[in-house]
Design goal:
By secondary structure, the protein is mainly α. The protein contains four helices and two strands; from the N terminus they run ββαααα. A two-stranded antiparallel sheet has the order 1-2. Strand 1 and strand 2 form a beta hairpin. Helix 1 packs antiparallel against helix 2. The two termini are 18 Å apart. The N terminus is likely disordered.
Amino acid sequence: MLASMEMKSEGLPLPTVDATGDELFRLGLLYSTGQGGAPLDYVSAHMLFNLAAMRGSVEAKIYRKELADEMASDEVAEAQRQAREWLAQG
């Protein structure tokens, strides 16, 4: 999975534009649970699940919905903004 990831200056993985839906989904899981060196970050997790869903991950759609139900509307809006920004960079 990390073969298609870049690293942030803090050492956290960021998806590259060629990341698959499965890779994005697995990274979203890390952020949604705070495991694997990723911080617990629901906004980033939602963003990654959103991108994974766009790339065909059915599981990501389910997790995105469940996570959104636990988030404030401004957090969901921020996750969507970050997903659009990531797509624009690709």
